[in-house]
Amino acid sequence: MKDWEKILRTTLKQRWKRYRRALKRCQREFSQKSVHASRIEARRLLSLVDLLDVFVARARLRKVRRMLKRHLDAFDPLRDTQVQLLLLKEHEREFPETNSFHRMLIKREASCLKSAARGVKHVKTRPMREAFEEIARQLARRRRDPAQRARQRAAVLAAARDAFARTLTLQRAMDPGAAETIHRTRLAFKRYRYMMEALQPLFAEIAPERVAAMQEFQSMMGTVQDTEVFLARLDKHTRDHELRARTLARFRRWLLVRHTAQIAYCLKHAGRLHEFWPLDDARPGNTPLAARTRRTALNR
Questions:
Q1: What is the mean pLDDT of the chain?
Q2: Sign of CA dihedral 165, 166, 170, 171
Q3: Most exposed: 10, 102, 241, 285, by fewest CB within 10 Å?
Q4: Is 115 exposed, middle or buried (0-12, 13-18, 19+ CB in 10 A)?
């Protein structure tokens, strides 16, 4: 019989430690590698807050969520610019007319680096530490109270089921003419995927292969958003500049074709989402294994 509370407390401790270590490294030596690590650990910690917020007042965690999201937001423009630079580098021989655009993005990257470095310097960890210490204390108390322990375990599973159900609802609403619907699905799925990683020590069904497949599924939707953002950046660069627009017209057409193909591929494979509720083979919350899991939790 697995000790849920001990395992979740250990997971919280590990994620908090990794987040602080990645943050300190990023503050000390700001680089592409340190930024990437810091973003991942922030997202993992944020998803764990969503999973465990049943243990403390949600109002108390509101500030923690804001701080983690502010941390992530500081990196978004930099990450988008670096993705765009990478794509241009890969296709520079095919599109030599993008040289001036490439130089503009290099300057933008430098500006984004400075802005992100300033933002990460101001991330404060004390309010987060206090909130996570309170969650750890509550988890320890639940081990001694069978009635509360059962309710809280059921609530943790409910949070995961709700995250999956929300992703499923958004996936069904995906529209080939509205790329933002794919982006919203991806964000919801990312949150759910990190929750599954947190629950991995509790369920054999959440195997490493499944987690890897989830990451691949998420990346499939991410390519659509990356191209969407790139097109917006290109259009901003050429707006009110007729010569720029004519020079980059061929590259823009290529991006549009790429975008259309990515959307078509994404919609074709969107149904794979049903594979990623790992606790049973049907919809969450109303299936034999899910029901058995809830009964087991309530009886422990």
A1: 87
A2: negative
A3: 241
A4: middle
**DSSP labels for 32-92?**
HHHHHHHHHHHHHHHHHHHHHGGGS-HHHHHHHHHHHHHHHHHHHHHHHHHHHHHHHHHTT
pLDDT tens digit sequence for 123-170? 888 888 988 898 888 888 877 777 777 888 888 899 999 999 999 999
Structural domain boundaries of the chain?
Answer: 1-144, 146-300
Taking the C-alpha atoms of residue 295 and residue 220, their distance in angstroms, rounded to an integer, is 36
pLDDT at 42 over 60: yes
Q: Which residues pair with 175 in a beta bridge?
A: 178
- pTM (2 d.p.): 0.83
DSSP string, 194-220: HHHHHHGGG-TTS-HHHHHHHHHHHHH
Residue type (1 letter), 44: R
65 burial class (0-12, 13-18, 19+ CB within 10 angstroms)?
A: middle
Cα(200)–Cα(193) distance, integer angstroms: 11
Q: What is the rounded CA–CA span in Å between residue 225 and residue 184? A: 10
**Integer Cα distance of 254 and 88 in angstroms:** 12
Quote the DSSP letter at residue 95: -
Q: How far is CA 126 from CA 75, 122, 123, 130, 210, in A?
A: 21, 12, 10, 6, 35
